[in-house]
Structures
1.
Amino acid sequence: MYDTPNTERTVTKNETKFSARKVQVYYGDTHAIKDVDVDIEDKTVTAFIGPSGCGKSTFLRCLNRMNDTIDVCRVEGDILLDGQDIYDKKVDPVQLRAKVGMVFQKPNPFPKSIYDNIAYGPRIHGLAKNKAELDEIVEKSLRRGAIWNEVKDRLHAPGTGLSGGQQQRLCIARAVATEPEVLLMDEPCSALDPIATSQVEELIDELRTNYSVIIVTHSMQQAARVSQKTAFFHLGNLVEFGETGQIFTNPKDERTESYITGRIG
Amino acid sequence: MTDTHIASAFDRDLETIQAHIMKMGGLVEDAILKAATSLETRDEELAEQVRNADRAIDELEEQINEEAARIIAVRQPAAVDLRVILSVMKIASNLERIGDYAKNMAKRTTVLSQMGQIHGATASIRRMAKEVERMLKDVLDAFVQRDAGTAREVMHRDEDVDQMYNALFREFLTFMMEDPRNITACMHLHFIAKNTERMGDHATNIAEQVIYLVTGEIPEDKRPKSDRTSTDPSVAPA
């Protein structure tokens, strides 16, 4: 009976992509993230779950220094990407964000054509030598975003004219256009209908072959469906981190249990 | 962790399905005791009652499965809630099997009451059935109390039932060798004894489910096996 492992659910140990040690985040006097230690693996989907205000989005935003844009926000501790401290003075946040892409809760296409939405990143990072190469990057990215077939005949129409689900997939295509190594997704499906949600989830699963994906989601079922690893945050603490299957059938911490079973905790 | 869900209807669903398991368990316990009593006292009317009561047990199993399917579809249970649903479904199917064995005992009672008595056999079977019924009662209490310790203890008590069966197996062989006219009755009695031993195995399966429900892990220590009649030739008299 052990002959045929279910490959879908097999959790293989991949190399560590992000390594966080003793991370603290303060917003002014508020201690938002307390002593978080976690290793995020490459080629794995990691889900961050937890109630509102638990710090999961804050922690996600530390991983590509999005919190730098908030004046009162202070980050302490070490966050290493491939062994390199991303908060080192020598690191350029713009370069970091090309490596660590991000997709937000609300689709936010630029008020430009579909083509230019995708081409924007590769252009400013100088990823294409000529028009032909740029065309290729745009097509490849749109294909990876699982939206190519729907937009290939209207690449020069405005991106804002697409439906919500299409816009979100456009934003994912835009995020992968710069060939990032990690993709951060902050509730990427919360504004989408179930069909668009399924398409994005299918896409996340495909992206896993090339990237490390970290997704913040309020839908526990979504975390269970798309991720291999799950981290549960509560009041700024990382309460439990483990294989998704284990977290959802037999969590070790009572707070995790209360949260995922919908009990008052 | 508190015991109540934010969605109180979910609590009611889970309470209902567990109440149905307890109701089913009560019916099955009753069937075991009545079947064994009817066998010993040659009470054909009581045996008939047991046979008719099995339908209610089967219906409860169906109802429990439907409720479980609905809860899975509507609530997407996770963690302990998921384990409640999974264990409830398995407990229901084990109870249903025990019910079938009790019904079979009652059927054979009707045939056996037309034949000569085999000395002491029916009293031994009743004692064995009584022990199985106690195991079942305790394991269902353990289910309600979420008590893995009691469930483990019930698993070990199955050894006693197996030993009672071994003894009966030997006894029946002796009776049959003594007088071939005993063969028909002894064959029926042997099936009853074997079925009762199987009831003990099903009670053990339920105990495993209770342990899974409480701990999240299926117990690794294989349950004790003391039915040696199928493997050890020395059990049978020469």
2.
Amino acid sequence: MLVPGARTGALRARALPAQPRGGIGGVFGDPPERLAVATTTTAAALPHAGAHAEPRGLAAWLTTVDHKRIGLLYGVTAFVFFLVGGVEALLIRLQLAFPDGRVVSAERFNELFTMHGTTMVFLALMPLSAAFFNYLVPLQIGARDVAFPRLNAFSYWVFLLGGLFINSGFLYGAAPHAGWFGYATLTEKPFSIGPHTDLWLVGLLLLGTSTLISGLNFLITILNLRAPGMSFLRMPMFTWTTVVTSLLIILAFPPLTVALILLLFDRFFGTSFYLPAGGGSPVLWQHLFWIFGHPEVYILILPAMGIVSEVIPTFARKPLFGYVAMVYATALIGFFGFGVWAHHMFAVGLGPIADSAFSLASMIIAVPTGIKIFNWLSTAWGGALRLRTSLCFAFGFIAMFTIGGLSGIMHASPPVDLQQTDSYFVVAHLHYVLFGGTVLGLFAGIYYWWPKMTGRMLDERLGQLHFWLMLLGMNLTFFPMHFLGLMGMPRRIYTYPAGLGWETWNLVATAGAATIGLSILVFLGNALRSAARGPAAPADPWDGRTLEWAIPSPPPAYNFATVPTVLRRDALWLTKHPDARGPGLADAAALVSGREPIHMPPPSAWPILTASAMLVLSVGALVHEVVVGLGAALTIAGVFAIALEHLPARAVPAGGHEAIHIGTTGLDHRKMAMWAFLGSECLFFGTLISTYLVYKGRSLSGPTTHEILNIPLTSFSTFDLLMSSLTMVLAVAAIQRGDTRATQRWLLATVLLGLVFLGGQVYEFNQFLGEGLGLTTNLFGSTFYVLVGFHGAHVSVGVLWLATLWHLTRRGRIGPGQAVLVDIAGLYWHFVDVVWIAIFTLIYLIQ
Amino acid sequence: MSAQSSEHATEHPQAGPRTYLVIAAFLILLTVMEVAVFYIPALARVLIPLLIFLALAKFGLVAMFYMHLRFDHVWFSYLFVAPLVIATGLAIALLWLLHVFGSTGLRPATGG
Amino acid sequence: MRRLRWWRLAPLGLLVAVALTGCGLASPATTLAPKSDFGRLSHGIFLEILWWDVGIFAVVAIVLLIAIARFRERDPASLPRQVRGNARLELAWTIAPVIVLTFIAFPTVSTVFRTQAAPTGDALRVRVVGHQWWWEFEYPDLGITTATDLHLPAGQPVMLELTSPDVIHSFWVPQLGGKRDTPPGQVNRILLTATAPGAYPGQCAEFCGLSHANMRHTAVVQPAGEFQAWAARQKTPAAEPAEGSPAAKGRDLFRASACVGCHTIRGVSGGGLGPDLTHVGSRRTIAGGMLPNTPAELARWLRDPPAVKPGSLMPNLHLSEAEVTALVAYLTSLK
């Protein structure tokens, strides 16, 4: 069981006759164990697998669904965007190095800082974390892939194309220019003319889609695909931070989506959601943006905290101090993250009660954060530290993040914040958190896992040089910004006059930025050197603690020859260094040498094609409605293609359930994902309904609720939708007991009732238009049509979905073995129904 | 993934068509009550809490029986109810911050 | 490696030293030398948190440095003691921050309520309007409208009522205290009493578009008597230039040109889009606080405003040199 001499990488896959070779290209090698490329979800398809032609070269990368390849794609792409964002930062620093700088114009400068923020948040740091999620989470939990491999690929391609889309503005002089926070009214038509802001908001909707899907994917992967025995409190800390980050993504992105959609309506269709002239409020944008924006800060920092929590125990050769407290601290930071957003808005004038409430809530976050910092210090204390580059970055993280956290306490105090917000002090603060924290943490992870990912070692001396240059550079850049802020220098100014005492520190900051640039060059040199002639990495170069170090570097496509059985936390470490309570793994050697049949998902071209269709849709928003229509049609076609790609030609009989969709918990991934998605939808509709209620009675002209709403008609619609829920649940019951004829009947009934509801809505909208209530007539019209319209869109999607299921059931392609497919559609349908229950009460009855 | 978990794979709710019909009857009854309450002037004072209560009852019935949260794995309830609670909290906070509960509406600009 | 450790804190130590001594931090826009009651209140809390922060960081840094120095791997064969946690310690560093935060929370909340109290009756009201990209100051009780220079009496409470017709700006005079945004459709307030006469620069702190960097202003705090005198002068109608003088030529030109569409000069024109110019000659700066108010700079501005100030809503009127000279003569005469 215990492999002898396990201290430094003895768990290498000696048993494998043909080990995958090092280098990025070798990741997808074809070891003999790769038994099967199952094209479908059933075991029946296994015999055909040999006939499947494996794509090679570029095509293999474009169609890959392997979480490790997607992780590498995320990593490389995000790093390129990181360099782009860095060059933007350097240009900003060059412009500000001296008073009255003339390096770039005011217009370019505004584009540069807007895109620097947007790029770093959405295109560099979040996707770099996603790269680690992708590569490592399945390995850490002992899985062979994520729950939804093709959706994972889809997320990546949407991210890549979205990133190119939003950056394309630089090519035609229309890059986004209103700040990464996009405050209305500056983003509204009268103040932002041209495609700048359209590009930004459509691009963010694209990126949000990608992020939301990957958040769902990782949440379900971790909940449902943990190896046997890996209970929640045996999960590695990085996996834990991924869980919380994914939850934050699922809950925080819908409010941003709503905020962007409202802005889109303002800009494209002439509504006044954020325009005071039409009764709207620019402050609503700020609330919605920061309801997303503050959890987003934790989305950016938690993965880095997870990395540091892996790196320090490994190089201190000692367990993470206070693991359980760390888990709770992570969860609490995530939870409190939803209650503090208005501390970004103290200067907006919320009144003393709200100021105080949000101030106290924000201070509370310092408590779990402090627990984390002291637990990391205690992990190092008493350890046997190996000061490798990765650990240096982790210690750098602790020191720098502490500075950022401590200055954050100042911003939690409104009187102090009023002096510091929107000044360079806050720029210093956020960069100590996001550079000193996130970036240093991510580099700790890069140095730590590079050997695992590439199969090659990085150079330690260059790594140390990189670390010291970067630490020096960031302190030179960002520490003086505290001073500049205290000396009254506001953010986001493209120039400043001489004589305010700001010259020296600006010059120092620019020199620091150049130092950071130099350190990045050192890293790039190190990376290229490693790729060209770095020594081959053993399976376990650091005497690691988690499961990824039990398998070769880089791991084979299927990860584990045998799915591990975990007995304790720090399973691998305790297997190598067992204590009185025994090893951590049931059979460590089998992880690389076992020979159980393996199902791996086949490559698919549909993710990239569907993502491209979404790009067409987005470009259409800037170009022409016809292109929008084309893109929407292609996107729907792509979604159908993905959904039907692996549907067996003949129905699965009862009992012949689809093993590949069932996690180790015994639950179906898809059903769990649907529930998580519905949770996310609660935030989406919750935000839309809040907007309606906030603007109720604020219409400046035109008809309002009681003059126009038709209660008898909507009562009938409500009745109709409730009945459709009944027919829906009868369809589910029918397929579960194997009665496909009844299933078809009830599905058809549900579809028809859905169509009747939609017909009623069309009639109602027509009536309203006839009575003079248009989308832009007043705020009531805008909020009403957008809320009820989005509900109607959900009904339409449901009708299409159920009609498809009805058709497939009739064709004999869905049977009792796939009852869960009807079940999931049913959950969606009932959710749409309960949203209507809320709308009926809050909009129609409470006037 | 592996076969050992297969016996848990399908979760049949313990409710049958009969239960669903009863729930449907309740849902219709509650909707009729909602509309009735809306038209009864005597109830105007308690209209809002009453309507919210009735809506919550309908919401709960659909979620627990039609979406079979009552019979299903408890994780599904967590995945749905936790976001629902956060969404409700955020909605109430937003309405409070944007002065919906006060009578003033958003603070208007004075003096043009 | 041993020597490198000291490198680690060298730049930081230097910077902290600079911060503590305050040397190199002198600026006319500093937040560290408050000249109002409002500024002093926030500065007090700032200092309190600063000292807590310095202390906490010192603890973290020292523990980290000692750990790095003492706990190196010496014998790869023997493992350090596998400590998994310590409930007492963990409880201690859960409770300690709560205590520190309580010390911060109390003055914070009390200051929040004190600084946002209802205005007292004797407060001087000033309507502060943020425009893209200049500040307008209106004294409704005195009947004065001016721009860019905010005159305030020392020792008297002032209620600034902030608003904007276009986008969100943020009014900030660092020496007089914290900033407040001007979300369109909402009126925000700052209540303060300036304590020391002086001219304190400030500028818009919320990104507001192309020339956000060029939206500056000066708060001129004057002893009460001086302020009264200034106010009295501002209330008078615009100076009438002597007939036949270059200034009179400028006035006629002003009247006949597009200027009147945007600018008010009481008795001459009534435009409302640009700054009121009735007493423009008495101001320290022009063009939204961007240029000193000298004839040469004024002439440069009039020749091509968008070239001086990106995005300026005042267009290039393609004035001839003679016209510029006449206008400069007229505008500088409006003391």
